[in-house]
Design goal:
The complex is a heterodimer of chains A (about 220) and B (about 600). Chain A is an alpha+beta fold and about 220 residues long. Chain A is built from seven helices and four strands. Among the domains of chain A are: about 15-125, Alpha-Beta Plaits, CATH 3.30.70; about 140-170. Chain A has helices spanning about 1-15, 30-35, 45-60, 100-105, 110-115, 140-195, 210-220, and strands at about 25-30, 70-75, 80-85, 125. A four-stranded antiparallel sheet of chain A has the order 2-3-1-4, sandwiched between helices. In chain A, a hairpin with a 6-residue loop joins β2 (about 70-75) and β3. The radius of gyration of chain A is 50 Å and the shape is rod-shaped. Classes of the chains: A alpha+beta (about 220), B mainly alpha (about 600). Chains A and B meet through α2 and α6 of A and α6 and α9 of B.
């Protein structure tokens, strides 16, 4: 029993080491993500990690053969960072190809992140690129809506001012035309009512009234 | 019957003061003065600035207001009255104002663009957009910052050089059209509408500046910026460029020589006390510059501190990851000791990392002095995206820029429209609304050039060369004309009839000797500077590197620059020549008859 245990341990050490084939480095930044609510990284957390990776492999290949014991962790540092590798349960000494592991992790990234209360940035799989979520884009860009509103207000203002200006001018023209007609009528009535015809003022016998002479000047200066 | 049309007037003197403030306090106060303050000695720059204000700013402002108020005509009519040979000065003013209004409204279009984009969460310039297969960010955005990417790529869509013009950007064209519609709405009814609008455009920027002052001073790291700015570096006072920059800033900040001040003053009552108003307006203008630079420097301090702390955090993360140290073992305080320790214990790995470890320096971040559109649209938006509730501050800030810009545009268009509405030839046939509409339409169509991909380069050409030399010449001719051709005694008498008080010896000495000498020396300096620099260069955006590079102007761009300067300066001698020829012809006609 001791011998098999030793063999297995040595085999595991061969499979999981930094930069081994099909091995991935994981970097976790708990304090950055959670601040005061940070939990300590201990053996239980490692167990959870192994469980999540096994879960991911099961979901991806949909054969329920991957066990928690198939996931090997090594070189855990203070950072917290470590390497892991997934062994094939059918053939004990080989590892599952890296592409399969990568695809499995990618498919279930969200679930793995939320199990640890972390995000893509704080739970990093160093060789696996994450798909960034595109920003939410509404069908009409927001700026066009605001632009449309402001444009309508300004155009309404311009139309209002122009139209009221035209109306004011029409009213002013009508008023001044009416006033002109009124003045003409008044002039006509003055000359009719005024029994003395203007020629009478030129008679030498009469005195030329300075006021009327001044009036004459005003009319002729036009 | 000749119906005498009375000249439209401001409703009250307050409208006139607000109009002048709204015109003079513009974008230059916000984006040029803080830069000059930083470059030329911080707090010490205030000394040459205030001296130039007293020697040059106040006298010239008083002169222009008095001329406008006395002659009660726009710039062309006013100078014709002073001497028929000087009608060219008025025409030159109108030409320069025309050039200015062509390109200035593009800034309002940009302000509108940013304002409309502030209504989203998160702000579009806060993060880089993703690349096509969603694995990372856009390459160009990675090389530079998200705010610079938003400005150069998504706003301007700038081309790599002046030669590649590209096509008109429809989004910018829409914003430009809107900007011109807003200006048209404000000038539609002449002083009746302008007088009401200036209440808002003059006072709103101050409200926003106060809000920003309170917000800025409470930001983390703002004090660093303020200390950096206000520490006087008095040795800069011995640098002649300091004095020249102070004189130039006062000169252009007040907007002298465009004819706008003459136009505004022509709508005054004859008895308006323009001496008091000139002092008030110039003092308010300078105080606003200083106030705006306090706000700008607290924002600078915040941005620099933020970038410095980000830089330190990046270095810490790099070291933690490389050496697998425990989180929290490296902090900003022990970073230097830990670096030494790591260098000693793992020399090889450290040497490999060394090129990536940047030396973060707060001084270096504060030293990045920026002016112009870079300051207004890049630096400020970068600071805003890191504040809480960034949408609110963004909307306030760009609305303030808009008010400042539109206030100045009102003055520019007044300078063009007042001579047009004064001239009986045009005003008799077309109503005011049509003339304003035609001017706005022509400017809008020409302004579409600045919305092309290379438009920003043409904008820089107009910004740097359209108004600088011509204005100096115009104001010089103005001062000499009033003092020596019209006669300072006659001018004194006019002022006495208007205000009831003769100008005292300070004004007379400034008008007759000091200001003309200052302008002549500025003029000589600029000409020699242009001659000595040889070829003119410009900054082009290189998308592959993600930064600005210097390039030479092509031949036709230099021709355009020459044309811009010549078009306005040549008006002055041409005007005198045309008047001379006309008088000669008239005399000949009279003598032959």
């Amino acid at each position: 029993l001791l011998l098999t245990f030793c063999v297995v341990a040595i085999a595991h050490a061969e499979l999981c080491k930094p930069d081994a084939q099909n091995a991935f480095k994981v970097r976790i930044s708990i304090k950055t993500a959670l601040g005061d609510n940070a939990y300590a990284w201990d053996a239980s957390e490692e167990y959870l990690f192994k469980a999540m990776v096994a879960f991911a492999m099961r979901r991806y290949s949909s054969k329920s053969t991957t066990q928690i014991s198939n996931v090997l962790l090594c070189n855990v540092t203070d950072r917290v960072s470590f390497w892991f590798v997934v062994t094939d349960s059918s053939k004990n000494v080989t590892t599952v190809p890296g592409s399969e592991v990568e695809a499995a992790i990618r498919m279930n990234r969200n679930r793995i992140n939320s199990a640890f209360l972390l995000s893509d940035k704080t739970l990093q799989f160093l060789k696996i690129t994450s798909t960034l979520s595109p920003p939410v884009e509404p069908s009409t860009p927001a700026w066009l809506i605001v632009f449309g509103v402001v444009l309508c207000l300004i155009v309404a203002g311009i139309v209002f001012l122009v139209v009221s200006g035209i109306q004011n001018r029409k009213k002013k023209n009508k008023d001044s035309a009416e006033r002109e007609n009124l003045e003409e009528k008044v002039e006509v009535t003055v000359t009719v009512e005024n029994g003395i015809p203007c020629e009478a003022l030129d008679l030498k016998a009469g005195h030329i009234n300075g006021v009327f002479a001044a009036d004459d000047e005003r009319f002729t200066s036009l | 019957k000749a119906m005498e049309k009375s000249r439209p007037l401001w409703d009250n003197p307050l409208q006139f003061v607000f109009a002048c403030i709204s015109y003079a306090v513009g974008l230059g106060n916000v984006w040029r003065f803080p830069y000059l303050c930083q470059m030329y000695g911080g707090g010490g720059f205030l000394i040459p600035y205030l001296i130039m204000l007293i020697a040059e700013g106040m006298p010239l402002l008083y002169l222009e207001l008095a001329v406008g108020q006395r002659m009660r005509q726009g710039s062309i009519g006013a100078w014709k009255i002073i001497s028929p040979y000087l009608c060219g000065v008025g025409v030159a003013s109108v030409v320069v104002s025309f050039f200015l209004s062509m390109y200035y409204n593009v800034i309002n279009a940009w302000a509108f663009w940013y304002l409309f984009h502030s209504f989203q969460d998160p702000l579009p310039w806060a993060t880089c957009p993703l690349n096509s297969n969603h694995t990372g960010y856009e390459e160009e955005c990675e090389k530079t910052s998200s705010t610079q990417y938003f400005w150069y790529r998504q706003t301007l869509n700038i081309s790599p050089s002046l030669e590649t013009s590209g096509s008109v950007q429809w989004e910018q064209a829409l914003c430009l059209t809107l900007a011109w519609l807003v200006v048209y709405l404000c000038i539609l009814r002449g002083t009746a509408s302008t007088g009401k609008v200036v209440y808002i455009t003059a006072s709103l920027p101050y409200c926003v500046l106060i809000i920003y002052l309170i917000r800025g001073l409470t930001l983390h790291g703002a004090v660093n910026g303020l200390i950096y700015m206000f520490t006087p570096k008095l040795e800069q006072l011995s640098n002649p460029k300091t004095w020249i920059s102070a004189a130039t800033q006062i000169f252009f900040s007040l907007g002298l020589g465009f004819g706008s001040l003459i136009a505004f003053a022509s709508y005054n009552e004859s008895s308006n006390n323009c001496e008091r108003h000139a002092i008030i307006v110039s003092l308010i203008n300078s105080t606003t510059s200083i106030f705006a630079s306090i706000v700008t420097f607290s924002i600078y301090g915040f941005k620099a501190t933020f970038n410095y702390e980000s830089c330190i955090n990046k270095v810490i993360l790099l070291l933690l990851n490389a050496f697998d140290l425990e989180e929290g073992s490296l902090t900003a305080d022990n970073l230097n000791e830990m670096k030494e320790y790591l260098m000693a214990t793992y020399p090889q790995e450290y040497a490999q990392l060394a090129p990536q470890i940047k030396n973060c320096s707060l001084e270096a971040e504060l030293d990045t002095a920026v002016q112009g559109t870079g300051l207004a649209f890049i630096v400020y938006s970068e600071a805003i995206k890191n504040m809480e509730v960034p949408q609110l501050y963004s909307v306030l800030y760009f609305f303030m820029l808009l008010m400042l810009g539109i206030g100045s545009m009102l003055g520019n268009t007044a300078a063009i429209l007042t001579p047009l509405t004064d001239s009986r030839v045009i005003a008799a046939r077309f109503p005011k609304e049509v003339i304003s509409g035609v001017v706005c339409f022509i400017n809008c169509v020409i302004g579409l050039i600045f919305t092309m991909e290379a438009g920003n380069y043409w904008f820089d050409i107009f910004n740097d060369y359209a108004a600088t030399l011509s204005l100096l010449l115009i104001v010089l001719v103005e001062t000499i004309a009033v003092c020596y051709i019209y006669g300072i005694r006659r001018f004194e008498k006019d002022l006495y009839t208007m205000i009831g008080r003769k100008p005292n010896w300070y004004w007379k000495i400034m008008w007759a000797f000091v200001s003309p000498l200052l302008i002549i020396s500025l003029f000589i300096f600029y000409i020699t500077d242009y001659i000595l620099t040889g070829t003119l260069q410009y900054q082009a955006w290189d998308a592959t590197q993600g930064q600005l590079v210097t390039k030479d102007y092509p031949g036709y761009a230099l021709a355009v620059i020459g044309l811009l300067v010549a078009a306005s300066t040549m008006c002055i001698p041409l005007g005198a020549l045309v008047t001379f020829i006309r008088k000669r012809l008239k005399r000949e006609k009279v003598s032959t008859v």
